[in-house]
Amino acid sequence: MPKPAEQRESLLAKANYLKLIAKDLADSMKNGGFSSLYKGQGMEFAGVREYIRGDDVRTIDWNVTARMSHPYIKQYEESRELQVFIILDGSYSMQLLDGKRTKFQAASEASAILALAAELNSCPAGAVLFDGEIYFSCKPGLNKNQTMQLITEMDRLPERQTTGSVLANAIKGAGKLLHSHSLVCIFSDFRASGWEKPLIQLAQKNEVIAFCLQSPADKKLPSIGNALFTDIESGRSQELPSSSEAFQKSYASYTKDKENKWKSFCLSHGVRPVIFDSEKEALGVLYAALNQGGLQ
To answer: Which pTM value belongs to this model?
Structure first.
């Protein structure tokens, strides 16, 4: 059976590296498929240039014109802002190691990169971190200290290892913290109940991407004969014939059907579904989600 990961590299220890690779994501957030989410926040002075016949005379900068002895006009740029919000699942099922890294390690790295990309783009970022209860939450803010606090709390979350998952409450909490249209990214394996209605409500006012974390065992159970499998969230146990070819085919069919139903639910309610393989690099998954709509 998969075991909880005992060793992991701290996000804080990788902060400089993560910030370096976050720059590519920051650029794609402005120029990719989510550029339309940036909303106008007024006009900012961008400089002056020489007057060209046909320019609006009301934009003439008379002080510069007087100094240069020929007309110059003021130029302005629309100030644009994207608000980013992260919902990160640290529940026990996210902590199991049955590959190169746990689902949580993949999800937390992606969350850190997203928060750093938001900072590089001067976008306010906030988060809700949870496991069996809400562990940490903050409304979107724009400062380096908040970004580092988010990464610090992501590092601390796995130390708790509480049972259960309050995914539904985390989504509800995000809705209460967000007062303007935002890009919300949910990182979870969705092994919980009751999250459907809160997700629908959140997507009605925000652009939501749901990243469903999967590990190798989610697609194919190890072939180890008859073995007792336990659902760590519910505590239910069952002996399964893992070496049986018929069982493996049935398991594969069940997991694929479950995945398709999850995708269909998300799409029917305006949520972009992304299957996030924990073996894949976080930056690549994020980049594809932001630039290709996240559809797998």
So the answer is: 0.78
